[in-house]
Amino acid sequence: MAFQPSIPLSGVSGWRFLERTQAKQQAAFESAPQIKRDLAYFEANIGKVKSAEELVSNRRLLGVALTAFGLEGEIDKKAYIRKILESGTADVNSLANRVSAPGFRQMTEAFGFGDATGSLTGAPGFKDKIVAAYKARAFEGAVGNANNDIRVAMNFRREFEEMSRASLRAAFETVPEIQADVAYVEGAIAGVRTPEALVSDPVLLRVALTAYGLESYASNPGLVRDMLAGGVTGPDAPANRLGSPKMKAFVAAFGFGQSQGVAVAQTSTEGFAARLTSAYKTAVFDAMIEDAGNKVPDAMRFKREVEALAKGDIGSWFSVLTSKPMRAVFEKAFNLPGSFGRIDIDQQRNVLIQKTQTLFGSDSLRTFEDPNNVEKMIVRYLVRSQIDLNGFATPAASALSLLQNLRSGSQGLSNLFASRT
């Protein structure tokens, strides 16, 4: 029987309990035999999938992929899913960009079936990211079986983190140094037909190694050349003897090794440059997130401050309104009436902006880059949900609920209802 998370308390107390016990409970959840079998199968087979048709034809792989993007309820819509994945994300009018569920666009971009990159299922880090997302989403779903309000709160926190990350990524893409690297690779990589040619070009070598998480080998181009020349087809190939999955993937991707005396370099094949630069950008961006930008140009930080969410606020507020968990938290936390969803969409956005300004002193979604503000919204949401559940209707009853939560260790509740407009 699958492990079911335990949340013996409701409201803010239940949220605090989950925060204290989540690591242990999530570990127990992930150790369930069915979860482990599904993920082992996914990791062993997803790299073989090269098209949307192949993905939707394998229900087991599709189930993991959809769950990773919060789309598990769509699993029976195979033709629809295939059409979305094949539409790509480059065209603003593509189906992936037009569907209301943001998970479809994210999944389409991640798999790359309809974009210039082609399939990204074999790209560096692809499996790890999908598996991590699956574990997080599946655990949220299991929490929902115990307490749906807390599941919604978890969704809310995660989606704001994802929105902030997406905004940073958009700014990152405009950094001149990054754009210059990408342009150089796109113009030069097709002409690289030998290992020697690659290691002799410092920019191409740096980008290629970074894309596969092999930066530490940049100081040893001779070793890299030997690895590339040896291929991966035999057990005695240097890349196989090294025992590094990353190096093996790197060598296999470039294909410089000999096959019956004939070079099989992949550098000029369709989508190679796009896949390489995509992996490079992702690797550098992830490094920036991990260690506060020490591995990217200072220009990144400047652009993040002046451009990131500011230029996308209007669109981002509409993203809030189209996300079920974020809409649910905002509506409940701001005590909006049930009829709120029936007014004009522009008016809905304006109300959220006004309420955010009143509570946080800013009308920008950038205020939620501060995790304390996200936590404040979650607490407001859970307290109001508990009040609704228990029928608390008077100010005295509301105050009693807040005092009870304060005694249980909750923080920041003294000004929870500082704004009750």
Secondary structure blueprint with pairings:
Layout: H1 11-30, H2 33-45, H3 52-56, H4 59-68, H5 78-87, H6 95-98, H7 102-111, H8 126-146, H9 148-172, H10 176-188, H11 195-199, H12 202-211, H13 221-230, H14 238-242, H15 245-254, E1 258-259, E2 262-263, H16 272-290, H17 298-307, H18 313-322, H19 324-333, H20 345-360, H21 371-390, H22 395-407
Describe what this molecule looks like in 3D.
The chain is globular and about 70 Å long. β1 (258-259) and β2 form a beta hairpin. 64% of the residues lie in helices and 1% in strands. It is mainly α and 421 residues long. 35% of the residues are buried. The chain starts with 10 loop residues before the first helix and ends in a 14-residue tail after the last helix. Strands 1-2 form a two-stranded antiparallel sheet.
Multimeric state: single chain
- Detail the poorly predicted runs: 292-315, 391-421
Measured as a percent range, the helix fraction is 55-70%
Strand content: under 5%
Q: Shape, please?
A: globular
Terminal CA distance reads 47 Å
Q: Which radius of gyration do the C-alpha atoms yield?
A: 24 Å
User: Going across the major beta sheet, what is the strand order?
Assistant: 1-2
According to DSSP, the number of beta strands is 2
Question: What's the pLDDT, averaged over the residues?
Answer: 82
